[in-house]
Amino acid sequence: MVRPSEKFADSDRKSQTTQLLLKAELATGHTLAGIAQTKRQVGDDEGGKLARARAEKIYSELGRFLSDPKHAKHLTDEKRRDLMVGMKRLREKLDGLTPGGGTQAETELQRK
Fold first, then answer.
1. How many structural domains are present in the chain?
2. Which of 28, 37, 40, 41 could, after both became Cys, cross-link 48 (CB 3.0–4.6 A)?
3. Full-model pTM
Protein backbone atom coordinates (compact mmCIF):
# COMPACT_ATOMS: atom_id res chain seq x y z
CA MET A 1 0.00 0.00 0.00
CA VAL A 2 1.28 3.44 -0.93
CA ARG A 3 1.45 5.92 1.92
CA PRO A 4 0.11 9.46 1.38
CA SER A 5 3.59 10.92 1.86
CA GLU A 6 4.88 8.70 -0.97
CA LYS A 7 2.04 9.83 -3.24
CA PHE A 8 2.88 13.46 -2.52
CA ALA A 9 6.59 12.87 -3.19
CA ASP A 10 5.77 11.12 -6.47
CA SER A 11 3.45 13.95 -7.50
CA ASP A 12 6.12 16.52 -6.63
CA ARG A 13 8.71 14.65 -8.73
CA LYS A 14 6.30 14.57 -11.68
CA SER A 15 5.68 18.29 -11.30
CA GLN A 16 9.40 19.08 -11.22
CA THR A 17 10.07 16.83 -14.20
CA THR A 18 7.24 18.45 -16.17
CA GLN A 19 8.53 21.93 -15.38
CA LEU A 20 12.08 21.05 -16.40
CA LEU A 21 10.94 19.43 -19.63
CA LEU A 22 8.80 22.42 -20.62
CA LYS A 23 11.58 24.85 -19.77
CA ALA A 24 14.00 22.84 -21.93
CA GLU A 25 11.50 22.77 -24.81
CA LEU A 26 11.06 26.52 -24.60
CA ALA A 27 14.83 27.04 -24.60
CA THR A 28 15.07 24.79 -27.67
CA GLY A 29 12.43 26.90 -29.41
CA HIS A 30 14.43 30.07 -28.73
CA THR A 31 17.60 28.40 -29.97
CA LEU A 32 15.92 27.26 -33.17
CA ALA A 33 14.56 30.75 -33.81
CA GLY A 34 18.10 32.11 -33.45
CA ILE A 35 19.41 29.44 -35.80
CA ALA A 36 16.72 30.37 -38.32
CA GLN A 37 17.90 33.97 -38.27
CA THR A 38 21.57 32.97 -38.59
CA LYS A 39 20.89 30.54 -41.43
CA ARG A 40 19.09 33.29 -43.32
CA GLN A 41 21.92 35.74 -42.73
CA VAL A 42 24.44 33.36 -44.28
CA GLY A 43 22.19 32.66 -47.27
CA ASP A 44 20.85 29.25 -46.21
CA ASP A 45 17.17 30.00 -46.79
CA GLU A 46 16.09 26.35 -46.63
CA GLY A 47 17.93 25.83 -43.35
CA GLY A 48 16.28 28.98 -42.00
CA LYS A 49 12.84 27.77 -43.01
CA LEU A 50 13.42 24.38 -41.41
CA ALA A 51 14.68 25.83 -38.12
CA ARG A 52 11.77 28.27 -38.02
CA ALA A 53 9.24 25.50 -38.70
CA ARG A 54 10.66 23.46 -35.84
CA ALA A 55 10.51 26.45 -33.49
CA GLU A 56 6.90 27.11 -34.55
CA LYS A 57 6.03 23.48 -33.79
CA ILE A 58 7.50 23.76 -30.30
CA TYR A 59 5.57 26.98 -29.71
CA SER A 60 2.34 25.33 -30.81
CA GLU A 61 2.86 22.21 -28.70
CA LEU A 62 3.72 24.23 -25.60
CA GLY A 63 0.56 26.29 -26.10
CA ARG A 64 -1.59 23.17 -26.30
CA PHE A 65 0.08 21.69 -23.24
CA LEU A 66 -0.33 24.80 -21.12
CA SER A 67 -3.96 25.25 -22.13
CA ASP A 68 -4.87 21.68 -21.17
CA PRO A 69 -5.90 21.58 -17.48
CA LYS A 70 -4.95 17.90 -17.29
CA HIS A 71 -1.32 18.77 -17.93
CA ALA A 72 -1.14 22.32 -16.60
CA LYS A 73 -2.14 21.16 -13.11
CA HIS A 74 1.41 19.86 -12.68
CA LEU A 75 2.75 23.42 -12.79
CA THR A 76 2.83 26.01 -10.06
CA ASP A 77 1.28 29.36 -10.92
CA GLU A 78 4.72 30.94 -10.89
CA LYS A 79 6.20 28.37 -13.29
CA ARG A 80 3.19 28.65 -15.56
CA ARG A 81 3.59 32.45 -15.69
CA ASP A 82 7.33 32.08 -16.39
CA LEU A 83 6.59 29.72 -19.28
CA MET A 84 3.93 32.05 -20.67
CA VAL A 85 6.38 34.97 -20.59
CA GLY A 86 8.97 32.82 -22.38
CA MET A 87 6.39 31.80 -24.95
CA LYS A 88 5.49 35.43 -25.55
CA ARG A 89 9.17 36.24 -26.17
CA LEU A 90 9.45 33.26 -28.53
CA ARG A 91 6.35 34.40 -30.43
CA GLU A 92 7.85 37.88 -30.80
CA LYS A 93 11.11 36.39 -32.02
CA LEU A 94 9.28 34.18 -34.53
CA ASP A 95 7.10 37.05 -35.71
CA GLY A 96 10.23 39.09 -36.34
CA LEU A 97 11.48 36.50 -38.82
CA THR A 98 10.59 36.60 -42.48
CA PRO A 99 9.37 33.35 -44.06
CA GLY A 100 12.97 32.61 -45.06
CA GLY A 101 14.18 32.88 -41.49
CA GLY A 102 15.84 36.31 -41.33
CA THR A 103 14.45 39.36 -39.58
CA GLN A 104 12.16 41.80 -41.34
CA ALA A 105 14.77 44.56 -40.95
CA GLU A 106 17.38 42.40 -42.73
CA THR A 107 14.95 41.74 -45.56
CA GLU A 108 14.36 45.48 -46.00
CA LEU A 109 18.11 46.13 -46.14
CA GLN A 110 18.58 43.44 -48.79
CA ARG A 111 15.88 45.04 -50.96
CA LYS A 112 17.71 48.39 -51.07
1. 1
2. 40
3. 0.77
